[in-house]
Amino acid sequence: MDWDDLRIFLAVARADSLSGAGKRLNIDASTVGRRIARLEGTLGAKLFVKTPQGYALAPEGERLLPHAESAELALSGAKEALSGPDNLTGQFRIGAPDGCANYLLPQICARLCETHPGLEIQIIALPRVFNLSRREADMAIAVSQPQAGRLVVQRLTDYQLHLAAHEDYLRSRPPILARDDLRGHRMIGYIPDMIFDRELDYLTETGAEWAQLTSNSVSVQMQAIRAGAGLGIVHDFAIPFCPGVRRILTGQISLTRSFWLIRHADDRRSQRMNRLADALGQGIRSEVARLQGLLTSEGSTQERT
């Protein structure tokens, strides 16, 4: 059995389509189809069933899947052994919510690439949960701990969020000294039916019943706040990137959330993935502490109570 055929089999199993697998492998869909047909002919078994939703694994494909994944892991291990214990190379894909992806991962990944020139890092910033079983990413950062699946879950660090507004907006309105003063202000937040994790439901913390300006992206929300559109709950670690944005009512409205690093259970046997997980986790902990420390050091000049 040819490993390259197994590689294509895995891509189709994870993408549920010939075209999706082709994009991952950088080959055309017709070639993917021919290679799958060849593998099925070699094995004398039907591996996929065509459905309206795409290509689903047939029972024979389900039985082949763990063996193909084991072969993939063994090949990865061989490459690790030849590259040396401290040299991280190859492609590495991280899935993360867009707040983390925008304000933390760029500088963390820049340092990783500087230390390991042979490493190629892809950051996928999407406001949803990633499916590691289908290898949408090698690792994912989440804001809550998953309760199901063959996963390795590690709590990375806590981070803080506060109500904030741009100083131009604050200067044009009466002082906000208590929760009751929030009445009549425009609120900025998530689109309610697009909140993919309960940990992102910030609005109730302010006592507001609704937000006038909403987005499924925390970065869009921050830019709206920066434009003076109103008040919103933001990550403390994002504020240093947004001149003029100030925290308010910090003694009355304060949220704490956590970042979790999620990996596929099989990756525990990969020393390369273990080293990458350690480096990524340490980078996130250090960067959150550094950015939040900037607000603490600036003290009252960075917030209004």
From TrEMBL:
Gene3D superfamilies: 3.40.190.290, Winged helix-like DNA-binding domain superfamily/Winged helix DNA-binding domain (1.10.10.10). The keyword rRNA-binding does not apply. Keywords: DNA-binding, Transcription, Transcription regulation. InterPro entries: LTTR (IPR050176), LysR_HTH_N (IPR000847), LysR_subst-bd (IPR005119), WH-like_DNA-bd_sf (IPR036388), WH_DNA-bd_sf (IPR036390). SUPFAM superfamilies: Periplasmic binding protein-like II, Winged helix' DNA-binding domain. Residues 1-58 form the HTH lysR-type domain. GO terms for molecular function: DNA binding; DNA-binding transcription factor activity. Belongs to the LysR transcriptional regulatory family. This is LysR family transcriptional regulator.
